[in-house]
Amino acid sequence: MTTSQTISHWINNDVFTGSSGQSAPVTNPATGQVTGQVALASVEDAQTVINAAAAAFPAWRDTSITKRVQTLFAFRELLNARRGELAAIITAEHGKVLSDAMGEVARGIEVVEFACGIPHLLKGGYAENASTNVDVYNIRQALGPVAIIAPFNFPAMVPMWFFPIAIAAGNTVVVKPSEKDPSSSLWMAELWKEAGLPDGVFNVLQGDKTAVDELLTNPAIKAVSFVGSTPIAQYVYRTATASGKRVQALGGAKNHAVILPDADLDLAADSMVNAGFGSAGERCMAISACVAVGPIADDLVAKIVERAAAIKTGDGAKGSDMGPLITKVHRDKVASYIDAGEAEGAKVVLDGRNVTVEGAENGFWLGPTLLDNVTPEMSVYTDEIFGPVLSVVRVETYDEALELINNNPYGNGTAIFTNDGGAARRFQNEVEVGMVGINVPIPVPMAFFSFGGWKASLFGDTHAYGPEGVQFFTRAKAVTQRWADPSHGGINLGFPENN
Ligand code: NAD
User: Fold this and answer.
1) Does the residue 493 lie in any domain?
2) Does residue 178 line the site of ligand 1, with CB under 6 A?
C-alpha cells in the first residue's frame, strides 16, 4: 500500500468514491507510516449508500432461502480459502499479530457457517386446527436495510458477528467500519461479489460521526447493530431508538478474573497472560483485573511476571507475540494510566512503558505491564484502559471478589479459576455479567450461542449472533387462516373466541 491509496465506499458491487472530498489517514501502527486515506462520507454520500441498500432489499428479500444460502456457502468457501489475505490486512492496519488475526477471521467464519443453517432457523411453527377449521402459523421476515457500525479492534470479526445472519435472513446491509482500519470490510465486499451476491445487498460506508448519524436517523435503515465504547453505544442506542429503529449497542468492558486459592496457578497465570496481553489488551473480552483471593497472590504474581516478561513485543507481521497499540494517542493514554496507578500507590511489577522495537522506532509500542496492589479507587481500576495493562487486586474472600465484580458498571465477561465445582457453580449463578468462563479466561460464546454483556456493556435486549442474532434481524408475523369453512358462524360482532 502507498500513502496515496484511497479506501473508498462500496455500493452495487463496486467502489464508490463519494463526493465529500474529506478523508483521514490510515496508519500501520507497527511502523507509524500512513498507508492509505479513508474516505469520510458526507451526508449525501451516506444517503447514496443507504439508497443502494434500500433499492436492493425487495429483490433480495424475495430471493428464495435456498438461493440466499447458496451464496452464503460460496462466500464461506472463498473466505476459508483466502483467510490469510484478510488476516494480513488486519495486521497491517490494526497491529495485532498474524496468528491473532487468523483467530479473528476463524471466529468470523464460524458465524458465516452458522448462518448457512438459516433455513432451519427461519422455519416458523404451524398449528393445524388451532380453532375449528382454523390454522395458525408464524413466519419470520427480514427487516430491510440494516446498519452495522464496527469498532477498530475487530475489523473483520465484529462485522461478521452480524452481516452473515442479516444477509441470510433477507436483509440488505450497510457496514460502517472504524476509520482506523477500514480495509477489511472492503476486502470482504469484493469477496461477496465473487460469491455472487447481487448488487446492493452488501455495502460499505466509510466515515466518522457524520456517516454514523445518518445511519441512526435515516428512515430507510430499520435496525442498527453497533459495537464500540460505552459512551458512543449509549448515544447510538438513544438516537436510533428515538428514530424508531431496532438497536443492539454493545459497549465497553472491565473484565475481572477471580483466582481462588485452590486454583491451578499455572493455568491461571497462563490464562492471565493470554487474556491480559493478547491483542495488546485491545479486546472487549480482555482480562484487565485479576482478583487474587487469599494467600496465593504472591505466587500468582510471580508466575504471571515470569511469563509476561518473556513476551516479545514487535511487528505482528514478523513473528512477535504482541503487537503495537492502535494509535500514538492511544498508546500515550494507556501509558498515562500506568503513571497514574503508580502515583496512586500501585506497584509496577512489570513496566512496558519503555519498551522499544529495533528497526521500528516509530511504532506505537507499549510492553506488557503488571500492576500489583491495585485498589478500586484507582483510575487504572475504574476505567477501561484497553491496553496491555493487567491489574492485580488482592482480596481475602470469594464474597469480596464477587462484590467487586457486581459493583462494576460493566458486565461483559468474567472468569473464575478454581478446582471447586461448588464455588464455580455459585459464581456462575451470582455474578452479574453476561459471559462467564470457568477456568476459561476469554469466554466468547460459539457462533451457535449468542454474545452479549450486561449493564453498561450492552444497550438493547438482544445479544449478537446465534439464535438471538436471528431474532434481531427478523420480525415475527403470525397468520390465522380459514378456508372454505361452512361452520364459520355467520354474523357475530363479538370478539372472536376459539372453539
Ligand atoms: P468507538 O466507540 O470509538 O468507535 C466505534 C464506532 O463508532 C466507530 O465506527 C466510530 O467511527 C464510531 N464513532 C466514534 N465516535 C463517534 C461519535 N461521536 N458519534 C458517532 N459515531 C462515533 O470504539 P473503538 O475505540 O473503535 O473500539 C473500542 C471500544 O469498543 C472499547 O470500548 C471496547 O470495549 C469496545 N468493544 C466492545 C465489544 C463488545 O462486544 N462489547 C467488542 C469490541 C469492542
Assistant:
1) no
2) yes
**How many whole angstroms from 40 Cα to the centroid of ligand 1?**
16
- Domain span holding position 231: 4-250+456-477
**Sheet of strand 255-259: strand arrangement:** 347-350, 369-372, 389-395, 287-293, 255-259, 413-417, 435-438
What are 381-436's pLDDT values in tens digits?
999 999 999 999 999 999 999 999 999 999 999 999 999 999 999 999 999 999 99
Residue matched to cell numbers 441512526: 216
pLDDT band at 4 (very low <50, low <70, confident <90, very high): low
294 and 229 fall within a common domain:
no
Is the pLDDT at 27 greater than 70? The verdict is yes
pTM of the model: 0.97
**Hey, which residues does 111 pair with through a beta bridge?**
none
Task: Check whether residue 207 and residue 261 sit in a common domain.
Answer: no
Residue 446 lies in a domain: no
- Measured on CA atoms in the order 372, 377, 380, 384, is the torsion positive or negative? positive
Q: Does one domain contain both 85 and 219?
A: yes
Residues 421 and 321 placed together within one structural domain of the fold: yes
DSSP state, 280? Answer: G
297 lies in some domain = yes
Which candidate in 284, 326, 338, 393 is catalytic?
284
Q: Are 173 and 166 in contact (CB under 8 A)?
A: yes
